[in-house]
Amino acid sequence: MKNKSLVALTLLLFNSLLSTVCAQRIMTLEACVEAARRGNVAAKDVQNDILMAKEQQKLARSKYFPSLTASVLHFQSSDYLAKYNVLDQESIDYMNNSLGSAYTIEDYTIGILKKGTTAGVTLVEPIYTGGRITNYNKLADLQVNARKLQRDVADDQIVMQTEFLYYKILELHETEKMLDAMDRELENIHQDAVNAWENGIVNKNDVLSVELALDQLSAFRIKATNGRKLLRRALAQNIGMPDEDIDIDTTLSKELIAPEQLAVSAQTALENRSETQLLDLLVEKSVLERKISAANMRPILAVGASASYSKLTTYDWNKRIMGFVGMQVPLSAFWSERHEYNRKKIEVQKANDFRRDKRELITLQIQDAYDNLVSTYLQAQVAQKSIARAEENMRINREHYREGLVTMTVLLDAQRQQQQALGQYNTAVSEYLQAKTKYLILTGRRQ
To answer: Which residues touch 366 (CB under 8 Å, ≥6 apart)?
Structure first.
């Protein structure tokens, strides 16, 4: 009965563990990048900026159409707004003297407009605005394009951040695999040391030295495991998913592409960069603002029509339709806006200088990214060769230890060299993959 209970408990724990593992979603690098593009806060912010710019664009386009206003007015005054005297004071005095009456001028005064109601609509269409509406629309279109380019720049940053976290997790996973292999290696060395000690060939110091190395390996494993958990949480936050629901695909291709196969001319890469196009839009924006400043010194010509329905001086409603042409000349702007126009001209020059300087910096950034790609590729090649040498050195020293030709200190040093070579290779591969992603993005070849 006890055995049956133990089996049932074991099966229950196994099923629980299996359900937990199955609940986790194993995500590839491509899936992580796609999730980050959807769930990252920065990506959402940029998308909202695009929607706002499009609304501004629609607002600017609406200025091409006539403006239509409607108004309703009703008034009630305590006295007449206007009065008309039928007779003047001299005529009233003459009449009073002749007839013996006592009329005053108020008796011959007619009041006008004490209350009234009016309603109407007015339509105004600008014919000439000096370029205000046209340039405002161009500026709104430019803002939409700029927001889209900023989305691409933000997307590049999201991709680089996601791949950085992903490759760091892979690096620590490879480190844990390496530690497993090193642990098995040390266990074999420990057994050899125990056998040699029991046979009186070596003293117990050799056994203790191996056990100390095993303890150090365990401490290193704890750090690697905790680091991997922390990076997985950071990756989950970056892609907008709960960290307990995801894990990454740990299949790592260690076949590295030679840098010359990825190389592209710096000038071509410069023109493909979203940042370069943003610099061009910055100059164009300053030019449009200068044109708008010049337009503010020009007259505005508009035509319009109005229709009204009112009851003022009579008891009947009156209908009226009227057309008009108007011109507004900003006289004071000829000397006040001139300073703003001159300021905008200086801003155009500043924008050109800024673009030229940043283009040079972007070119240097691209060249530096390629140099880093070459450097990490060569480091990975060297680290790969070091693994073979370290493994051969370990094999020889282990045989020599068994034959009593070297001490345990020499053997453990060979083991540390092997561990270091494997760790350096894992780091070099991770750095190469990150350098490749960065170089492709900085040369305008977004993932």
So the answer is: 266, 269, 270, 439, 442, 443
Spatial distance between the Cα atoms of 70 and 18, rounded to a whole number of angstroms:
71
E-strand ranges in 31-167 read 67-76, 82-85, 109-112, 115-128
* Burial of 416 from C-beta contacts in 10 A (0-12 / 13-18 / 19+): middle
> What CA–CA distance (Å, rounded) separates 337 from 133?
18
Q: State how far the Cα of 162 lies from the Cα of 371, in Å rounded to an integer.
A: 22
Q: How many other C-beta atoms lie within 10 A of the C-beta of residue 290?
A: 20
pLDDT digits (tens, 9 = 90+) for 254-269: 678 999 999 999 889 9
Instruction: State the amino acid at position 62 in one-letter form.
Output: S
Task: State the pLDDT at residue 245.
Answer: 67
Give residue-wise pLDDT tens across range 19-73. Answer: 444 446 788 888 888 888 887 788 888 889 999 999 999 999 998 999 999 999 8
Residue 366 carries which side chain, given as an amino acid letter? Answer: I
**CA angle (335 as vertex; 334, 338 as ends), nearest 5:** 85
| Residues paired with residue 122 on neighbouring β-strands, in sequence order | 69, 306
Listed as own residue / partner, the contacts of 137-141 with beta carbons closer than 8 Å and 24 or more positions apart are 137/57, 137/60, 137/61, 137/63, 137/64, 138/288, 139/60, 139/285, 139/288, 139/289, 139/292, 140/53, 140/56, 140/57, 140/59, 140/60, 140/61, 141/57
Considering only CA atoms, which of 327, 326, 334 is closest in space to residue 296? 334
Q: Helix (H, G, I), strand (E, B), or coil: what is residue 306?
A: strand
- Whether 176 and 221 have beta carbons less than 8 Å apart is answered as yes
What does the pLDDT read at residue 10?
46
Distance CA 176, CA 174 (A): 5
| Residues forming beta bridges with residue 74, ordered by sequence position | 117
SS3 104: coil
Pair 300, 129: CB distance under 8 Å: yes
The encoded tokens of residue 98 equal 């002749």
Please give the pLDDT value at position 254: 67
The predicted model scores a pTM of: 0.74
Check: CB of residue 177 under 8 Å from CB of residue 153: no
Q: What is the mean pLDDT of residues 77-102?
A: 75
Looking at every residue in the chain, the average pLDDT score rounds to 85
Two tokens at 312?
Answer: 């003022």
